[in-house]
Amino acid sequence: VLGFLMSLCGVLLAATPLMTFWETNYFFIVLLIVYGFGAILRGISKKTFDTGFLFGILSLAAGLAILFVPGLKFMTSTTIIYMLAVWFLLQGAVALTMGIRGKKKGHETSKWLGNIVMAVLCFILGIYSLFHPVALAFSVGMLLGIYFIVSGVNLVILGFQIEKKSV
Q1: What is the pLDDT of residue 157?
Q2: What whole-number distance in Å separates Cα of residue 53 and Cα of residue 40?
Q3: Using alpha carbons only, what angle is made at residue 23 by residues 70 and 157, rounded to the nearest 5 degrees?
Q4: Helix segments in 24-108, DSSP class H
Q5: Which of 28, 113, 121, 130 could cross-link to 85 by cystine, CB 3.0-4.6 Å?
Q6: What value, to the nearest 5°, has the Cα angle with vertex 118 and ends 113 and 122?
Q7: How far apart are CA 37 and CA 27, in angstroms?
Q8: Helix or strand (DSSP H, E) at 21
Q9: How confident is the model at residue 61 (pLDDT cuts 50, 70, 90)?
Q10: How far apart are CA 102 and CA 162, in angstroms?
Q11: Could you tell me the pLDDT band of residue 158, with boundaries at 50, 70 and 90?
């Protein structure tokens, strides 16, 4: 049943990819609030009011602000899009560095060349995403939908396999 429900949710997510992306902010908000509460409780229980405690207060405040202040949710979504674009560029720099090091160390061509190709793809994706953020938001929503569909189908298959083995 869970597999069917996950697959159904995946179809709905993939059918509305931009809305899916905008609503992923709630995961980020929950993460901030839970982390904030955890850090505050840890600080109080250990009686250590250090930077971790302060960061917990800031995380909790940020999560609640994004949740309740109009406009901050949109700003957060926009920021996440650009953070992903920059992450692609940084990932490209790392892959390029690994490829160059692999070539200098005399690794097989297939090993270091794969990193160079990955770097080029990451740079292209990062630059494209910086100039076309809606395309990135669309693809994140689609990827979440596909993930839910594949996970749901896997759960359904697993459910039938377990049922056959138990008979």
Answers
A1: 85
A2: 5
A3: 165
A4: 25-46, 51-68, 72-104
A5: 130
A6: 150
A7: 15
A8: helix 17-23
A9: very high
A10: 45
A11: confident
